[in-house]
Design goal:
This protein is α+β, with helices and mostly antiparallel strands. Helix content is about 40%, strand content about 10%. Strands 1-2-7-4-5 form a 5-stranded antiparallel β-sheet, with helices on one face. Helix 4 packs across helix 7.
Amino acid sequence: MEPTAIERWSHPPCRLLAPFIDRFWGWQSAGPAALPLLLPGTGSECLFHLRQPLLQSDGHSLPSAHLICPREQTTQLHAPGALDFIAVRFKSGQLRHFTARPFIELHDEFAAIETLWPGETSALVQQLVQTVERATRLRLLEQFLYRQLVQHHRPDEQAQDALIDRLYYAPNQRIETLANDWGWSTRHLERRFKQAFAVTPKRFARLARLHHCLRQLALQPRREPLAVILERGFSDQSHFIHETRALIGLPPGQLQALMSRGTHYYHAPSRQPD
């Protein structure tokens, strides 16, 4: 049976949440749909399933509302039935401003939303399922997230926020240069960064560069691939192939074949990388 087509949508956050959240987005389908591979990356997302939750490759169902925060693992998820979810895409490193849970405990897990906000999510999930209008659902999510931001915001970590932002949008710079610009030793920068983000700054930069490239290849399929690869800071095609295998575990040809089916998790960036 042919997979059902997916309807996609996205919506920007309100002004108060925009420094921390990239977008709200979601997919809907009338029946089972083919999902793309979930690749290691730099982002964090909360998914709220309005119908059946997704299944992991071993057949186990994900929670009805859960975190996605892949850093090391490539995962294939499956839709057992009609698809309908709302996702909150946090900007890199910004989830930690919304929860007391240490970020280093969250990566590469499909943690239930309840673990982020104990005792506070059941009513929200129920309201989202029972509400028909998307605009109302988004308003409920924004109100909930703003309350969490007021409670958990860490204004003393602005240096880490600026560092993550700079490394994400300009991933080809040297870590030593960043440390010097911040007035830190390289070791201090690496410790502060890993504390905030759960991976080293070097791995973060490699993942950011690769995903800038993959996003551009997916969203601009008429571009010459080698031109995009070089534009995104890879020295040559062999360098790109090596990084794709090392970070994702797949050769680029196989990955591009999967992406050519028309399903991927990329959106047009709200800000272009340098």
